Amino acid sequence: MVVTKKITHCTPTDGGESATSLGMGMGLMAAAMSLHIMVTPEVAMADSAPERGLVAFKYLDYLDRQPGSDRIRVKSPSLLVMKPLSNEWSLSSTYTTDTISGASPAYHTRALRNMHDQRHMIEVSGTHYDALGTQTYGGSFSKEADYLSKGVFYAFTKLSEDKNTTWNAGVSTNSDQINPTNHIVANETKQTLDFIFGVTQVMGVRDIAQVQVGHFYGQGYFSDPYKVFDLRPKTRTHNTLLGKWNHHFESRQTTLKMSYRYYDDNWGMQSHTLNLEYVKPYANQWTIRPYFRLYTQSAARFFVNSDGSGSPFPPSPSLDAVYYTEDQRMSAFGAHTYGLKVSKLINQETTVDLKVEQYQQRAGWRLFGEGSPGLDPFAAKSIQFGISHLFD
Length: 392
Prior knowledge:
The structure is a single chain. This protein is mostly beta strands. It has one domain (26-391): monomeric porin ompg (Porin, Beta Barrel), CATH 2.40.160. Helix content is 2%, strand content 58%. The chain contains one helix and 16 strands. The chain has a 16-stranded antiparallel beta barrel. β3 and β4 form a beta hairpin. The longest helix is centred in the N-terminal third of the chain and has 9 residues, at 26-34.
């Protein structure tokens, strides 16, 4: 996932929060693109093909801002269709289009530049089921005005004989081509390889836990051609550790979902993400899910801090600097996300849901050390509507 102005390549920690204008809302897209190599506690026990097909539509409206100015607006519809082909096979396809407009900072949080772009992405996968596991094969294609990405992936799950333990692993690879509209570079390329391995354990009638580790390796063009003073290393590696715990309260018929994610990379960045979600069902098939996310990250070792004097010009990197960036996404900061998801089961086939998120970011909220000084506060909000329908 390259760090540029683009909607699909913006998250500095590949799944954490982001200081970018797309940091909160596009976490949804990043998560969606990673589903083919992830297993969640809710689906870990699947051992046969679904009996019915599924069609699901999502629409995301995202807007972020800094003091005195709206920055980026994203409107993103997405359509998923899954069809069982037999008792052993199912086929899935997802199509997403993102329309991005607004202004992106050329450096730090300053010098906003107008931008408009559109992305089209399609992903196709087939899953084979047997009594003790699944295998999924797939590919993806994503195209923007200045970015082309092609990828393939494979994932499998394996259940223990008592079906209380599920092992999962996966690998994906992408080949990207970058041709920025400002012609700073031409025909730059990037290749990435992503591994994931995990285990999900049923702890009892009320508890289920998961531990997952990941490793990423990328080589090629990682710089942002739309930023001032931006030259990044040609290789990037990162490791992640994810832990999840779901506990069901029988007396209240509610579930508490907790997760923690640690990230570190060879650029000197580390991040911590804590998620809490409370699932409460109500009468007439309503479900309410309030959630909270706490995030903190350190800066890349080649990040150039802003000029505290208030100068209108960006600070220059040191004369001996080999790599440098003034992208706020590479800075040290902390962030809070508050959200609420409401869903309604209309009938046995159809479900609708609405999710609202509010994201706030400050350099001073950085934990485990100081944040990067001189950066404007950043805020974002998103609204997502979804509807899904089962069919024969």
